[in-house]
Amino acid sequence: MAGLQQQSMTAPPRAADDLPDRPYFVNEPAEEEEEARPAAASRQKPAPKPAPAPVSPALKAAPTPTYRPAFVPPRPQPAPQKPVRVPAPDISRIRPGAVVTHRAFGKGTVARIETEAGKTYICVTFGQLEKRFGFPGAFEEGFLKLKP
To answer: Domain extents for the chain?
Structure first.
């Protein structure tokens, strides 16, 4: 009896015409399936929204105009401001040993003034730190100031 039962449980091999027309993983229903599909159950109507609170006519915003002119004159642009240049200090007083201040590093002393590739640099020591600046541009732009 067990042998008969096992034979009845085996499926016959598939034939070429047994394959489906459309793959089973496609989400869209076939055209003929759409027609055969029953209509969706009616959904519940959403709850009505509460009426807005009455607003006095004086507090209502002005309606947005629907008219747009064909030409709108350009708005005047503010004139660009020129950068303020600090007048160049008396460079003759700047030499090694002079005391200068920097806006970020604070008080320092001029270690040396050197020329390299046609440009002049000033080396300033701020405690243990030595920094190199363009000379006299660092004074003209306000990064360094000569202490009186």
So the answer is: 92-146
